[in-house]
Design brief:
heterodimer, A: alpha/beta, Rossmann fold, 2 domains, 4-stranded parallel β-sheet, 12 helices, 17 strands, B: mainly alpha, ABC transporter involved in vitamin B12 uptake, BtuC, 11 helices, globular
Chain lengths: 382, 288
């Protein structure tokens, strides 16, 4: 009888203890713009949420496919469910998030890819421009026709910045190559991505990069045996012999860093006015590769080693080594190399980054000019 | 140079046109029998996940398409029960079917996300020529057989069909189920031939294009085929022409042009006609 009593006490203690723990857990709510199965942007945020939840003493909630103009009622709902931190993950949520931040001064808000902040609202972004530059170096070396293709989602600063960095990389290796662009006006549309890729193939392009949330471009290029670069999710599996590299994201590095500082009491609802995570290679928020852990598909190693280039700072070396050196230079803090360092003229010949200058985060976020070598329509070109 | 352009555009028109023909032909038959089904997008996306899952697990893409036809027909039966037997509003039920299909396929599709399909069909396959042949057969059946008269009459004057002792409900059920099966095949073609892979919501509005083609082709199978290929070719050209024409207006070009051309040819053409008289109306025995 005595052991039964003891068991009962132990069980009771455990029950209360875990209930107590559960209460102490920080509740974090996520607002997603797309479905978590989009194999792109929202999928990546959701993977990061799962990792953060497994490694930190937090509990997470999420709402997927929230229309950009209707963030507020969904944020409200998360707060009612007990969320103390609300993270909204699309540019279009910016004003809605700010309005809610002002209405709930005790809740912590975070907004991805925007620029508006509040004492209780920080901003964060894991940006790819360095990765696109590295991809551009490889693309320039692999193109035989000198025509490289880029299928772009929307002609907005973010995509223009990535395209620009890509084109600068291409030209650093192959000064006469051109980057041909087609716009989809959609973040996710496999049919459009497919026909745009077919159009670029018909025009003689032989290496492919893109911004769109499906592996369509990789698949279409791969069917013709043409090299391509994956975007956002690991896409080497869609073209084991044709995907050279790509851009991969680790939102969890930002989420883990921020949330652990909230748990430690370092970040509160009063001191976020100037907190902006603009995280790149050095912070390990982004990764170069078509598959996690594989920067360059081994199938392309010898091809990239065979092409040699002359650089001002590193002398003569193979493109493979150049990619590795630039990668190392950008993985350091502070960085030893930035693709957007002057002098850079745009494709019209206008000086856009003077010699010795590097573009600021604000300039990168509002960039509208087209880098030299880009061919194709460029809405809002200055 | 010019030849390359023409050939390439025709090939692309056939490639994207193939899934569209199947879906559009299905809608032509459903609407000819008097039932509007706005659930084409939902039936297509269910067909897409069914075909992908089957093709991936068995390595047999044709079997995948067969199952896609079954999935599309099953989804269409939901609509049929609601609007034919229970006389629900056809437009509302169709919209609900689209949402249901998108949601259910997303749920079932989670584990197939981000996988390359191992056994694929070429974009222009037996199903392309099959679609063309089917259109001719369906046109013949519709205008030159007793079955065709029954289907058309169910859409024009269901009471008259009933008076002849033919079961209007049965005719409509069969037409809607047949339409769903074809929409399922159309969706399956997207995931095993056109793309080929699965992503949630991958039909991206092509179901609505199929409905528009069916309507603007004046519910004629042959015109619908022409419309589907025409749309496919223009859709491709809208990207090809971006070098010369600004991309914003080009976005609308395939939609606007297809509708314009179909509308014009339909007005001039012989045998052209308006919508089936009883389209969208539930049939109630003894009522007029």
């Amino acid at each position: 009888m005595r052991w039964l009593k003891a068991m009962l006490v132990i069980v009771l203690i455990f029950t209360f203890a875990t209930a107590g723990l559960a209460q102490a857990k920080l509740k974090v709510g996520f607002i997603y713009v797309g479905p978590i199965g989009d194999y792109g942007w929202t999928h990546a945020h959701d993977q990061a949420r799962k990792i953060a939840q497994s490694k930190l003493p937090i509990e997470t909630l999420y709402v997927e496919s929230v229309p950009e103009a209707q963030a507020e009622p969904f944020i409200e709902k998360l707060i009612q469910q007990g969320a103390k931190v609300v993270l909204t993950t699309s540019f279009g949520f910016m004003d809605g998030t700010l309005a809610m931040a002002k209405r709930y001064p005790n809740i912590i808000f975070g907004h991805a890819s925007g620029f508006k902040r509040n004492p209780n609202m920080f901003t964060y972004m894991a940006d790819f421009y360095q990765i696109y530059y590295l991809n551009g170096l490889m693309a320039g070396a692999l193109s035989k026709s000198g025509k490289i293709a880029y299928v772009g989602a929307f002609p907005i600063p973010e995509v223009k910045r990535h395209l620009g960095a890509f084109a600068l990389g291409v030209r650093a290796v192959n000064p006469r190559a051109t980057v041909h662009v087609r716009w989809l006006f959609s973040w996710f549309d496999p049919a459009k991505a497919k026909e745009a890729t077919e159009a670029l193939i018909a025009e003689g392009a032989d290496v492919f990069a893109f911004t769109e949330d499906s592996p369509t471009v990789v698949q279409v290029a791969g069917k013709k045996g043409l090299p391509s670069f994956g975007h956002y999710s690991p896409m080497q599996r869609f073209g084991p012999q044709t995907v050279v590299s790509g851009q991969l994201v680790h939102w969890e590095t930002i989420y883990m860093d921020f949330l652990s500082k909230v748990l430690a009491g370092k970040y509160t609802a009063d001191n976020l006015q100037n907190v902006d995570y603009w995280w790149l290679l050095a912070e390990k928020a982004v990764e170069v590769g078509g598959e996690f852990g594989t920067a360059i598909n081994p199938a392309f190693t010898s091809k990239l080693q065979a092409v040699r280039v002359r650089t001002a700072d590193l002398g003569q070396l193979s493109v493979y080594d150049l990619v590795m050196r630039r990668h190392a230079q950008m993985s350091r803090k502070p960085v030893a190399f930035d693709p957007f360092t002057g002098p850079i003229r745009d494709r019209k010949g206008r000086m856009v980054v003077p010699a010795g200058k590097t573009m600021s985060i604000l300039e990168l976020n509002t960039m509208e000019w087209a880098a030299p070598g880009i061919v194709g329509p460029w809405p809002k070109e200055p | 140079m010019m030849e390359e352009w023409i050939i390439h555009t025709i090939v692309r028109g056939l490639a994207l046109g193939t899934p569209l023909i199947w879906a559009a032909l299905g809608e032509v038959y459903a609407e000819r029998s008097g039932v509007v089904n706005l659930g084409v997008e939902g039936m297509m996306v269910l067909g897409a996940i069914a075909a992908f899952a089957l093709a991936q697990s068995t390595g047999l893409p044709y079997l995948g398409l067969l199952v896609a036809a079954g999935a599309g027909a099953a989804a269409a039966m939901l609509h049929a029960v609601l609007v034919i037997s229970l006389r629900a509003n056809q437009y509302v039920s169709g919209l609900a079917l689209t949402m249901f299909g998108l949601g259910l396929s997303a749920l079932l599709g989670r584990r197939w996300e981000g996988l390359p399909l191992l056994a694929t069909l070429p974009e222009i396959s037996l199903l392309t020529y099959g679609g063309l042949a089917l259109a001719i057969v369906l046109w013949f059946v519709l205008y030159h057989t007793r079955w065709g008269i029954l289907i058309r009459s169910a859409g024009e004057a269901p009471a008259a069909v009933d008076t002849m002792g033919v079961n209007v409900f049965l005719v409509r059920y069969l037409a809607v189920a047949f339409g769903g099966a074809l929409a399922g095949v159309g969706g399956g073609l997207l995931s095993v031939a056109y793309r080929p892979s699965w992503t949630e919501g991958m039909t991206v509005g092509l179901g609505w294009i199929a409905i528009a083609i069916a309507i603007f082709a004046s519910w004629d199978p042959l015109r619908a085929v022409a419309g589907a290929f025409f749309f496919g070719a223009l859709f491709h050209l809208s990207f090809r022409l971006q070098t010369w024409i600004s991309p914003e207006p080009l976005q609308m070009m395939p939609f606007a042009f297809t509708i314009l051309v179909l509308a014009l040819t339909t007005r001039r053409g012989r045998g052209a006609q308006g919508a089936p008289e009883a389209l969208g109306l539930p049939y109630v025995r003894g009522e007029r």
